[in-house]
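Dear colleague,

Following up on Tuesday's group meeting, I ran the structure prediction for the two-component complex that the binding team flagged. I've pasted the input sequences exactly as they went in, so you can double-check that nothing got truncated or mislabelled along the way. The structure tokens for the whole assembly follow below. Feel free to forward this to whoever is handling the docking comparison.

Inputs:
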Amino acid sequence: MTYLSRIRINPLRKASQKLLANPRALRGAVVGGIAQDPTEERILWRLDADNPRRPLLYVLSRSRPDWTHLVEQAGWPGADGEHAGVRDYGPLLAQIATGREFAFRLTANPVQNTANPDKPTQEQQERVANGTTKRSFRIGHRTVTAQLAWLLDRTVRWGFEIPESRMSTPAPGIAPLNDPHHGGEPAREVRIIARKRHSFTKKRNARPVVLHTATFEGHLRITDPQVFTDHLLKGFGPAKAYGCGLLTLAPLPRHLLHEGGH
Amino acid sequence: MASSEEAVLLLRLAGPIQSWGDRSSFNRRDTRPEPTKSGVIGLLAAASGRAREDSITDLAELRLGIRVDQPGTLLRDYHTASDYRGRPLPQAGVSKKGVQKPTSPPKDTYVTTRFYLQDAVFLAGVAGPRPLLETLDHAVRHPSFPLALGRRSCVPTQPISRGLRDGSLGDVLAAEPWLASEHARAVHEREHRTTLGSWISLSATLEDPEHGDDILNDVPRSFDPHHRAFASRRIRHTWLKVPTGLADAGNAADTTADAGHDPFALLGW
């Protein structure tokens, strides 16, 4: 069984201020909600702060979680409404089939692995000079272009495709911005709605962990249900412990549904 | 008056242009933003074949409610009038014989300004005794004289009558689905930067003899050209929650706090 949870976070609580600022602290709170072997299973989570005054925490877990501690420390324990909704993920997994289209959202950590960085830091230069590198360097993509390209490069491997964005035909004499006939890549139905740089330490006086995250939102079409389901449950890209890699699906907006048959 | 015999006749007042004047009688012809009672009663009287001199007291007793489905936009028409025989126009003053004197120097053209509502749609509810409304419903579907929306040049689109309903004026007007065109719906969505839900709030003016807090002087006493007179009526302005006729399919995602993306929308099935 797999469960998707949605927990309301009250940003005015003392405890939640630490959780919202530090992905490592939030991971601790998420893992604390899993009763059995929390270190064994891959827990995916994501913080959605569309409305910064009412952030929502989404968690995908194999076993049924309990969020009483989060509601007590960082929620509204006495308030009306659903503090923490937990739903079976089965109905969604049952809908995954080739050609199905959904709206999606994904917060990911786009990175590249390279042995020869363009602009190596002092430390990287020393490591290359000493020959002490065992593996290539993992460098975060920091521009919108690179982050989008990172996602579009991987969609085939992940079992889905992002349709070309629907644009009206340009007026006569005006060339489209990204004309495939002129060597450009066609624009896709995806955009980055938030980008963030996280920096936090795991130990006192240790070097900080630095993460560049990007939140993608768009429209996808499933091409390989098996591979897609696998990734949906295991997560997309690196930094899954720190709130990256949970891709959620939602119904397409109504204006896209009408033209879904094209 | 037994309440069981009360009914409401619904009329859809829509056309390329409409003009509902209530006070102007000279060179500047205004329009109200909503249909007037004299205009609607004139339409009903024309449909039932009454001459201008005939009594309309039974029609004037009906209560009128107007719902604004599409407010439309104001059209200003620069309008000129001349004598078709090429003679100079007469002036306002009269001679000893009681004949209008010619203008001097001769004036051949009047300039008048006329205002119209273009692309407006209204839903009018006429409340009154059921037998009378049944005859009016039949008359609107089989009119004796050509019908017009406030002025003879303003031709209505069909169908006008939407039939009789039971219930109070406000409830009946609120229950009828929104009559806006597909284009008007798209414009509304674009201007309000929203996707339409299953209901929309529309403004309405309801005749309310007891609790009305505003007064309009548009109740005709007679359409006789020699005895034109108007009485007043008490009205009340309100907002009605009207169904748009759209399914609730897209609304689950719209109503949640996380308006943009709701992963739970797919899990409820």
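The domain at 6-243 of chain B is CATH 3.30.70.2660 (Alpha-Beta Plaits).

Cheers,
M.
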